[in-house]
Every structure is written in structure tokens, then in C-alpha cells.
Amino acid sequence: MLEETLNWRSTYKPEEIRWHEVEKEGETGKVSRANFHDRHGRTVLIMRPGMQNTSSSDGHIRHLVYLLENAILNLPEDQEQMSWLIDFTGWSLSASVPIKTARDSAHILQNHYPERLAVAFLYNPPRIFEAFWKVIKYFLDQKTFQKVKFVYPNNKDSVELMRSYFDVENLPVEFGGKAKLQYDHEEFSRLMMQDDVKAARVWGFENKLCHINNVYSGAEVAPEQVPLAPPAS
């Protein structure tokens, strides 16, 4: 698996993906990094499959990989895993990603980011999602499958399980919490631009910083001081 991942990283080059390359995929906020952590201090990715805005399988996967790398980049030193919150508001079977895209995404997560996922909460999926899930679950290995938790507002045990991972004050109202969260694409893009600079320095791509600044000309990108050591993959 390690050899396969090294080969994949050498060809796909996930650490070199920059926000301007995947920004279109992120316009609706279908996947974004939350501005809060779970109770263990882990980075949180919020996913909104109902906000799917493109039909490009490659674009969808590249955008997801970018945010996986970004989540890892922003992990605290004592953490190696991330948590996912998945909001099914507006989701429909007709607007869902193709089965092949879901399969390829699962393959990348499991084979190239093993044990990076701590838990994934699927909040209030519609009944019709069961048909989609019956297919998708066969693409998941047993470890990943056990990390997927279904949460329904009228199921007290499932709600309590999710709240054991998240402070209700930080949890968005879409997930039964008290925080109001509205995706601001302009603000999120600004944060991703800053992280692109940080990632280039972490991975030793200082020579590409000039190109990044040219792409983001006119944007306020504040450089950050970061250790010059690549994160574990």
C-alpha cells in the first residue's frame, strides 16, 4: 500500500494542487474546512452533497483531494486524523455524484489516506439515500465502514453520539447545534490562498511562491511562518 501511495503521489502530485485550480468546484461550499475542531482538536471537513455544482468527475475528486491535503496541513501536532460532517439538505438521487466517482473517491481515501478519517457523521439522510448507500458501502473496507455514523434528529442515541464528538455551541444548526454557519466563498478562498502559500513552504516549493502570488494578484495573502517539514501521509 505504501509503494502504491508513493507512486500515486508522484504522478497525481496532490501537494501541488492549488486553490485556483479547484475553486470552481468549491463555489457552492459542497466541501469546506470548518472554522472549529471536534472535541479531540481534529480538523473538521463539512460536506454538502446537495450542493453539487459540476458534472466533472476529475474535478470533483481533485477538489476533494485538495481539501484532504488542506485538512492534514491544518491538523494540530498531536493529531493525525480528521472528522467529517455531512449535511444532506437538498440532496437527491438524480443530483448525486456518479457511482464511479464515489467509488474512486473511496479508493483514494482508503488507499492513499489510510487512517486519516476518524469518523464521518451522515446527518439526516433522506430515505432514498438508502438505495445509494447499498451500493456505496461495498466500496468501503471494514475499518472505514465502521467509522460511518448515521444521525437522525429523532434518534436520541445517534444525536448523543455525535454530540460526544462535538461541542453543541460549535456545531452548526444544520447538524442540530447552536452555531450559525454560512459558507462565504470569498472568505474561504482567501483562507485557501493563505494555506497555499503555507503548503508551498511546508513542501519546499518556495520557487513556486512567485507563481502563486501572480495567480492571486490583488488578493491579500498573508505569509505564515511554518516548519519546513512535510506532514505524514
Which key features would you list for this structure?
9 helices; about 230 residues; Phosphatidylinositol Transfer Protein Sec14p; single chain
Record the SSE blueprint.
Layout (H helix, E strand, L loop, with lengths): L1 H11 L6 H4 L8 E7 L5 E5 L9 H17 L8 E6 L11 H14 L4 E7 L5 H8 L5 H6 E4 L4 H8 L21 H18 L6 H7 L18
Parallel strand pairs: 2-3, 3-4, 4-5
Antiparallel strand pairs: 1-2
Helix pairs in contact: 3-4
Task: Explain what the structure shows.
The protein has a single domain, classed as Phosphatidylinositol Transfer Protein Sec14p (3-Layer(aba) Sandwich), CATH 3.40.525. Helices cover 40% and strands 12% of the residues. It has 9 helices and 5 strands, in the order ααββαβαβααβααα. It has a 5-stranded mixed β-sheet, with helices on both faces. A hairpin with a 5-residue loop joins strand 1 and strand 2. The radius of gyration is 18 Å and the shape is globular. InterPro entries: CRAL-TRIO_dom, CRAL-TRIO_dom_sf, PI_Transfer_CRAL-TRIO. This is Random slug protein 5-like isoform X2. Residues 19-183 form the CRAL-TRIO domain.
Brief overview, please?
With 233 residues, this protein is an alpha/beta fold. The protein has 9 helices and 5 strands, in the order H-H-E-E-H-E-H-E-H-H-E-H-H-H.
Beta-strand level of the residues, as a percent range?
A: 5-15%
The assigned CATH architecture is 3-Layer(aba) Sandwich
Instruction: Note the overall shape.
Output: globular
Radius of gyration: 18 Å
Number of DSSP helices? 9
CATH topology tier name: Phosphatidylinositol Transfer Protein Sec14p
| First-to-last CA distance | 12 Å
User: What is the number of domains?
Assistant: 1
Which strand order do you get reading across the main beta sheet?
1-2-3-4-5
Q: What profile does the largest beta sheet have?
A: 5 strands, mixed
Number of strands: 5
Helical content band? 25-40%
Low-confidence stretches: 217-233
CATH class: Alpha Beta
SSE pattern: HHEEHEHEHHEHHH
